[in-house]
Each structure stands twice: as C-alpha cells, then as structure tokens.
Design goal:
Helices cover about 10% and strands about 40% of the residues. By secondary structure, the chain is mainly beta. It has a domain of about 90 residues: Immunoglobulin-like, CATH 2.60.40.2550. Strand 3 and strand 4 form a beta hairpin. The chain is elongated and about 90 Å long. The N terminus is likely disordered.
C-alpha cells in the first residue's frame, strides 16, 4: 500500500529505531514561520507508527500552549464538552530518512492528542455527491490554506473554526456522519442564526467563539487551488480613450489531475491575490479577488494618455493550495481524527511592456530565415489613427538601423496581421529587424522588440534550447501557425485548452528529431474566444495564449 493507505501499527525494534532517529533530528529542524512551539509531549505521546516501513510520523508538540492568562473557556458540542488545550500541532515525519514537518488540527474534539497514545493513517479527503460534504471539505481546505495564526488567540480560533466544520461521530445517532453545520440542532448560545448552525460547536469564551463563527461563515462559500493546479495569465488589448489607456489582465485556474482524485473540480470561489506595480511609481498595489464559475479573475490597469510615454507594469497572481488529509486512527475506537494542512504558494508572473498601452499594440513580431531570405510577420491587437509601418534593418549588433520598406497600415480597432519578405540581403549574413509605426499626425513610435535572422540560411545556428513561438496570426480566423524548436530528439506534445482548462484539441503528439518545426491549428469548429496552447517535451513546458475571432 502507498502513502494514502492505512498505517500499520508497529511495535518493537523498528518503532524504537525510527523514534530514535527522529529524536536525534527534530531539534535541528527550522521553524517554518508558523509560530513557536511551546509544548513537548515527552513520553506521553504513545508509540511511533510506520507506514509500509517507509515513513514515520512523530507528534512533536503544540504551539502557543499558553493563553496569556485568559481562559480559553470550554468547548461544547451536542454530545459533550472539552476543556483541554487545543490549537495547531506539529508532526515530524521521515520518509526515506528525509525529515520535514507537517501541521495538523484535531478534527475530533473528544481527543487530546498531546497526552494520549496515538497512531494515524493519513489519507486524502474525497468529496462525495453530498453537498454538505463538499461545502465542509472546501471550507476546511480554505481555512488550512489561508490560516496564519500569530498568537495563541488566533491559533485557538483556527482550531475552533475547524471543529465547527466537523462531523457528528456519535455511533447510533440518526445524524451520524453528517457535518454539524448541516444538522438542524437547536442553537446552543444565540437562537437567532438558523443556517448554518455554526454554534452547534461553540466555546464559552465569546471572543474566541465569535471570531471562529466569522471564519466559518466566510469559508463556507470559498474554494482552493490544489497542489498540481496552474495559473494561466494573460492580458487583453488596450482600450484607448480620450484620457486613459486601459488594459485588462486576467488569471484562470487550470485544474490538474488531483482535482479529479479528490472530487473538487469546481473552479468558483478560489482566492487570488494580485499584486501589480507600475514602473515609475514603485508602489505595489494588492487586490484580493475570487474566481468566477470558469475559474478566472480579472481587473483593469489604466495609464493616462500621454503621447508615446507609457510605463511597463509587472503583475503577479498568487494563491495558496491545500487540501485536507484526514488522519484516521489505526483503531477506529481511538477517535484520533486529525487533519493535516501544509499549504503551498502557487504564483504566476505577467510582465506588460509599456507599448501595450499605445494606440498601436504590437502583440507579436518574428523574423524567420527562409531559403529566399528573411520572412517577417507581426500582429497587432489594436490600431488607432495609424498611417503606415516602417521596417528597419541593420547588420546584427551594430544598431545602425535604416528603413528597409514601408507598408500601409490596416488601421483596425481589433488588430491586424502583416507579412513582409526581405529579399534584399546577403546570403548567410545575420540581420536585426525592428518596427516603427507612423501615425496620421506624423508621430513615429519605435517598438522595443528586435528580431534577428540569418538571410537565406534556414538551418543557421545550432538549436540550444526549447522554444515555443507566439502563434501567427493572432488573433486568427480560422487557422494560425505555431512554430517551435527542440534541441534534442524526443516526444513533443502541443495541446489547446479553453479558459476553463478543458482540452479542445491535440495538434502534436509524436516523436521529433532535434530541429525547428511549424504546425497549423484550425479552429473552425470552435467558438470565438481566448484559448491557451501548451507545449511539453522532456522537462520543458510552456503555455501561450491565442484568440479566435470569427
């Protein structure tokens, strides 16, 4: 059995040996910014248990054991009461003799883990068809993911909030197995609230109880990312008004395989922290956002219209991922039910160059070597009062650009695609290219992007790294070309997804020799909208955005 299987209770030589190893190692562990542990259970914690002779979990104590002289009060629930210590506990775990820590809260208020023998089986909590179970597990995951207690009071509140989400375990009860907040118990403190019944577990310390109630009420409509989820980020074309140029940025959650394993495929209510900084101000701005039903969040960033001078903006989207790992006792009568929470942070960066806010937004520019010379392709997201384009060229590395050609602008508010074939060069020479847009009023804007290519030598330069180019054209209707390169032989997969993370097309899935490649993607059977294409090969993975406009 693997890590999600049941712990086997081990007594004797193996247990003592592993306990000794842990005891020698635990005090060298760095504290992971989760507070100072003030309780050591000593010899009262019971035997150490191994999992398939691979892992050992050893309870190491409870943090914030003191209360600052203020009583915690008594925790009450329909079947009894509890007046002992509670809060977050730390376990030291060794797997293949690698030592790290795990953090847990008691799920079972009958059990005081710090002073009784224990053994646990750690297994993923799985959502069933029951809506109460789904709400319970997602809310518990949210509390585990975003809990960051800084003192004994906050630590107690987190534990009490998790207890309010626990399940009735009284054998023989007609409500056995149902989360307390879904049961129509009489309210034991304040009869006013009718749903959810968060006071069916409560503390006689009103400050702790009220704070825990607020946490539960806030968490019940929330969700979380999971460990193998991804954030896909992008920005829309600028909307240029008389006073401000506005860019909309967005992030969408893409679910990994674990979502299906635990039954949490819902994308709504996931907390995303977005931080952006405009270069000139240096002041970061932070937004708290929650995903919609498609798993996406978005917001606008604006800059005053000021000729050709716009700042670059750096955006970062972050979320915490966590999912309850039930701790089930080896003997079900032990009532040692705990839940582990080790959140991880998932972040994705989105740099937005200053020219994104220009009336002409250049979304892609590429130079490709061909047998006849160099092929230039570029796309725009929007064009306002644009007269023509200038293509400039120089010998690579010299920076002495001269005008090679002029092309009349399409001047489209929804963007355009352009192609120019340079046939006026020397075979084998490498050239640098850049673009200049010229407005109706004569204003010339030099775009920052510089592309290089060898004239007339498509095989020039050894490929040293994986590359996935921007699709051209983009936006497209109905087809676009995706170019990519691989430095070594291997399997290549390119798959297209919609904004909800659903696979809509697999356009490459075959073995390639090292080299440069191009593939055509036809979206005739898809509806207009934003899509993402992802290339994976060996340890390389990259995702880019395309937009289908019909």
């Amino acid at each position: 059995m693997k890590q999600n299987g049941r712990f086997f209770y081990r007594v004797g030589y193996i247990a003592l040996l592993m306990a000794f190893i842990i005891g020698q190692t635990v005090f060298a562990l760095p504290e992971a910014d989760r507070g100072t542990f003030s309780s050591n259970p000593g010899d009262q914690r019971g035997p150490v248990v191994t999992l398939d002779d691979q892992c050992t979990w050893d309870y190491d104590g409870m943090r914030f054991l003191g209360t600052g002289g203020i009583s915690r009060g008594t925790t009450m629930w329909p079947n009894g009461s509890y007046g002992g210590n509670y809060g977050e506990m730390r376990f030291v775990r060794t797997c293949d003799l690698l030592v790290d820590t795990a953090y847990a809260f008691c799920f079972d208020i009958d059990h005081a883990l710090e002073n009784e023998p224990y053994c646990v089986d750690v297994d993923s909590a799985v959502i069933t068809e029951d809506s109460c179970s789904a709400a319970q597990l997602k809310a518990t995951a949210y509390l585990l993911a975003w809990g960051d207690a800084q003192n004994a009071f906050e630590d107690d509140v987190d534990q009490l909030a998790i207890w309010k989400l626990t399940t009735n375990k009284k054998l023989g009860s007609p409500t056995y197995g149902i989360p307390y907040f879904c049961i129509n118990w009489p309210n034991l403190i304040d009869p006013t609230p009718s749903y959810p019944y968060i006071n069916t577990v409560f503390s006689t310390n009103s400050d702790r109880n009220n704070a825990a109630n607020l946490k539960v009420l806030d968490a019940l409509d929330k969700n979380v990312m999971l460990e193998d989820d991804q954030l896909l980020v992008s920005n829309d074309p600028a909307v240029v008004g008389p006073e401000y140029s506005v860019v909309t940025v967005q992030a969408c959650v893409y679910r990994g395989a674990r979502a299906g394993e635990v039954g949490n495929t819902s994308l709504e209510g996931i907390r995303i922290i977005a931080t952006y900084k405009i270069t000139s101000s240096g002041t970061p701005h932070e937004l708290e956002l929650f995903t919609d039903a498609s798993g996406c969040v978005s917001f606008d960033i604006s800059q005053p219209v000021s000729g050709n001078a716009y700042d670059s903006v750096f955006v970062e989207f972050c979320s915490n991922a966590c999912w309850p790992m039930n701790g089930i006792p080896c003997d079900l009568d032990d009532k040692q039910d705990i839940v582990f929470g080790d959140p991880i942070e998932i972040c994705e960066e989105l740099p937005i160059p200053g020219d994104t806010w220009l009336p002409v937004e250049l979304t892609a520019f590429h130079a490709f070597s061909s047998e006849e010379g160099v092929d230039l392709v570029w796309t725009t997201a929007s064009e306002i009062e644009l007269d023509y384009w200038e293509i400039e060229r120089c010998n690579s590395g010299t920076d002495d650009f001269t005008v090679l050609a002029r092309l009349q602008a399409h001047n489209s508010l929804t963007g355009s695609s352009y192609t120019y074939f340079d046939r006026l060069g020397i075979v084998g020479r490498v050239y640098d290219y850049r673009l200049v847009d010229v407005g109706m009023d004569g204003t010339r804007t030099v775009h920052e992007s510089v592309e290089s290519a060898s004239y007339g030598n498509i095989a020039a330069g050894r490929i040293t790294e994986y590359e996935l180019d921007d699709a051209y054209p983009n936006p497209f209707n109905p087809s676009t070309t995706i170019r990519y390169s691989i430095p070594e032989d291997g399997l290549v997969n390119i798959t297209v997804y919609d904004v909800s993370g659903r696979e809509v097309a697999q356009i490459v899935n075959t073995f390639h020799e090292a080299g440069r490649y191009a593939v055509n993607f036809n979206g005739a059977n898809l509806s207009s909208g934003t899509y993402f294409y992802r290339m994976t090969s060996s340890e390389f993975s990259m995702t880019k955005r395309i937009m289908l406009l019909k």
